[in-house]
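Incident review: delayed structure delivery

Summary: a single-chain prediction request sat in the queue longer than the usual turnaround. Root cause was a stuck worker, restarted by the on-call engineer. No data loss occurred. The affected request and its eventual output are reproduced below so the record is complete for anyone auditing the incident later.

Affected input:
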Amino acid sequence: MDIYLIKLIIAHLIGDFFLQPNAWVKDKERKKLKSTKLYLHVAVHVALIFLVFLSFDVWKIALTIGLIHLCIDALKSIFQTNKNARILFFIDQILHFASIVAVWHLFYKGSLDISFLNDAHTWILVSGALFLSMPTSIIMKVIIAKWIPDNQPDSPKSLENAGKYIGILERILIFLFILTNHFEAVGFLLAAKSIFRFGDLKEKHDLKLTEYVLIGTLLSFGIAIVTAMLIQKFIA
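Output delivered after worker restart:
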């Protein structure tokens, strides 16, 4: 990757995630375009570009990115509500990174190598990762549906859909571990989950719930391992 693009990304990461206190974020959300913290935040980004390049010759790049950053953050502050705050955060970051790449291309004539998108191996990897997300969750739900234990009135409530997302994350991690030939990390992940999960089950003394969790965990790990090994064969 081009060194100039890397420096611009580093400046953005430092400005948005290290040098932007929560108080500034709240002030921008509350006062919107009247927030002085909005303009101070943009000034920090401009200053960081000068700093990472150690030169004032990049003033056109710094001011261009600063102006675009101001527009993106201003629009976000105007349209953000409690309901759409999470999705706007990701849209905001996507627009920032896209603008950085666009400015880098404009000033440095840089280009990103996207030839991997035409590589069959890339799409095989993507298909494997997608299969281990929602499709596997649904398959597992169908398989173990008849063993779902009855809810107990004194059972602690868990986060909504937490189990589903934990399963997806663990399968994706296993997928990555095996494809990078780190099988030992799979064992570490299983051990870590066992410590957190089965400690609670032991206290409940509920054999059916324990067996249900064991079946779900082993099934999830098994599907992830088999899928990763098959993908590994296809791309070898």
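Verification: The chain is about 75% helix and 0% strand.
Action items: add queue-age alerting; document worker restart procedure.
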